[in-house]
Design a protein that fits this description.
This protein has about 400 residues and is α/β, with parallel strands linked by helices. It contains 13 helices and 18 strands. α2 crosses α10. The model has no long low-confidence stretch (mean pLDDT about 90).
């Protein structure tokens, strides 16, 4: 790239990683366009965790105090047996690897709004549009937008989630990179009939899991109905999704019938497989991927938001400080690959904790819960974060 010209970047996806890339590239003097298929910044959603080196990213963006004020401070998680009787009550940090008083848990919509507030004024924001076609060549990337506009950029970054369209256009179909983790789930909001506050309930029977999560003390909770499934979810019709979930939980006790009815009536239903994205390369030519688009660890890891923040920070700063996009992409991949793989591996130890598939797994899990220091998911998260130090880059002229 000509170092005397202002370089241009198109970032697809404006949820978490996208605004972080726009922040750093914008402050480094790039011309950045951020395109999002939704008509506005998405609010709501489950609280997400920011731990370890991801905290350093938001600190360097000047957002830590704002996000600290939004921290929901979930305190305990109660595990229940098939009859709804308590098996164990543990500190949330033991389950998810958090450190009380240091790590943050933020409603996803609030985090997205905070990240957008930091984006420099010169960044071009385009909502209700998306990339339709890409043509990568020596002089740049020719992009056709869904709305019909055609433009050329020096680079394109896909930050558009686990079902990334950018990845499909530049690297091939999702099936090449998706690793199904053996279950599917429905997420939705429900009434807080149990009066939960700053806590979660996790109910299990082999191959079935129900969770209620109350980040505060309001009248609504976040609910998940998860179930073992041998292949990825294929249904896109909401009525078909509801039918699949209802069938998976038919005839079960505790409050499951009421949760199924709440799922049927929910206006915010989210249904998907639990899976990861594994790619041999996160970049090719002038196109790179970041966050879930490149290396989704699944929500079983509890680290998806954290590695998206870190990946966006590293990718943007490598692009801004290396003489070419080729060198920047190489540094981005070589510096993060081991950290990402350690975070993806967390899902394999978390799944038997959250959704034991057999009576034997359930019995082993319940015994482990009585000794919080032995809970594998929390220890794996802490080990992964302790293994990585966020790199420093030249100071910005803010």
């Amino acid at each position: 790239m000509d170092s005397t010209a202002r370089r241009t970047a198109l970032v697809s996806g404006a949820s978490i990683a996208g605004p972080v890339i726009a922040y750093w590239l914008g402050h480094h003097g790039w011309d950045v366009t951020l395109v999002e298929k939704a008509p506005a910044i998405r609010d709501g959603g489950y609280p997400v965790d920011i731990r370890g080196p991801a905290l350093d990213v938001v600190r360097r963006m000047g957002l830590f105090e704002r996000l600290e004020a939004l921290h929901v401070d979930a305190r305990r998680s109660t595990f229940l047996d098939a009859e709804g009787r308590p098996v164990a009550v543990i500190d949330m940090g033991d389950l998810v690897g958090g450190v009380r008083g240091r790590d943050l848990e933020i409603p996803r919509g609030e985090l997205a709004a905070a990240l957008h507030s930091a984006v420099p004024d010169g960044v071009e924001l385009i909502f209700d549009d998306s990339i339709e076609t890409l043509h990568d060549h020596d002089g740049g990337v020719d992009v056709t937008f869904r709305g019909g506009t055609r433009r050329t950029f020096d680079i394109v970054v896909g930050a558009d989630g686990v079902h990334s369209r950018t990845r499909r256009l530049a690297f091939g179909p999702e099936e090449r990179f998706h690793r199904h983790l053996g279950w599917s789930f429905a997420g939705f909001s429900s009434s807080n009939e149990l009066g939960l506050a700053h806590e979660s309930l996790i109910w299990n029977t082999p191959g079935r899991m129900a969770a209620l999560y109350a980040p505060g003390d309001g009248d609504r909770v976040f609910a998940i109905l998860g179930f073992s499934s041998p292949s990825p979810a294929v249904h896109r019709d909401p009525d078909a999704q509801r039918a699949v979930v209802a069938e998976a939980f038919a005839g079960l006790g505790w409050r499951i019938p009421g949760l199924v009815e709440a799922m049927r009536a929910a206006g915010d239903l989210f249904y998907d497989s639990v899976g990861q994205i594994h790619m041999p390369r996160w970049s090719g030519g002038r196109v790179a991927l970041v966050g879930d688009a490149a290396y989704a660890p699944s929500f079983l890891s509890g680290q998806g938001t954290g590695i998206a923040l870190i990946g966006a920070y590293v990718l943007a700063n490598e692009l801004a400080t290396r003489p070419s996009h080729t060198e920047a992409f190489e540094a981005y991949e070589s510096g993060l690959r081991t950290f990402v793989e350690r975070n993806q591996a967390i899902a394999d130890v978390s799944r038997p904790v959250l959704n034991p598939a057999t009576e034997e797994e359930l019995a082993l899990r319940d015994r482990a819960l009585r000794d919080p220091s032995s809970i594998p998911s929390g220890n794996a998260v802490r080990d992964a974060n302790d293994s990585y130090v966020l790199p420093d880059y030249p100071a910005l002229a803010l």
